[in-house]
Write a structure and sequence with these properties.
Layout (H helix, E strand, L loop, with lengths): L2 E3 L7 E4 L4 E5 L13 H5 L3 E5 L17 H15 L6 E5 L1 H13 L5 E5 L7 H17 L5 H8 L10 H10 L4 H6 L19 E2 L2
Parallel strand pairs: 3-4, 3-5, 5-6, 6-7
Antiparallel strand pairs: 1-2, 2-4
Length: about 210
Amino acid sequence: MEVRQLDVPDTDVIQVGQGPDLLLLHTLLAERTVFDRALPELAAKYRVTIPNLPGYGGTPPLENPSPQVRDYADRIVGIMDAVGLPNDTSVLGNGAGGFMSVSLAVNHGDRFGKLILADTGPGFPEAAKAPLRFLADKVEADGMEAVLDAAMFECSQRATSPKIPASFQNARLLWQPVTPRLLLRRRVRLPMLKWQMKLAGSQTKLWS
C-alpha cells in the first residue's frame, strides 16, 4: 500500500488508495495514525485522505486562540480545496472530528457527498464537558504527563500494554511533549442542531 504525503501548506496530510474519495477526520485524543489499522481495507476500495487536524502532528494550531467548531470546519474545507477533493467526497468524522463534520455539513454542505458520523452526536452536553475541563485544568497545572496515561486509557487500553498496536504507542509519544495550552484549545463549542434542517441546501445524507 503506497502512502502519499501531500504537499499542503501548514497541514500534515496523507493519501492512500484509488477510487471514490473518502476523507477521515480523527477524534480528540488521537491523530491521523488512529486509522492505520483500517487503511489497507479502505484503500482497496477508496482514495482515502487523512489530515492531522489543527494542533495535531505536523499541523500547527489555528491562529485563533479560542476557536469554535466552525473555524475547524472552515480549515477542513481549505484542506479539501488544496488537495483537490471533489464535491462528492464522503466524509467520516469520529468523535470531535464528527462535531467538525456536522459543522462542515451546516456551513459547507455543498462541498461533499455523504456524511458518516462515528461515536458523535448533534451536540455536546454541558455534563459531558466536565471531564474535559478537569483534564485541561490538570494539564495546565502539572503538564501533559500528569494525565497522559488516563487519557490514552480512555481511547483504548493501558498505554503500557504490549498488546496495543504500535501506532497507539506512537500516539502516546506524540502527545507527551504537547504544551498544556493545546488541550485547553480543544474546548470548542457546538450549538445543538436540529437534524431536520436542510443542511446548507445540500443533499448530504448518512452512509447507507
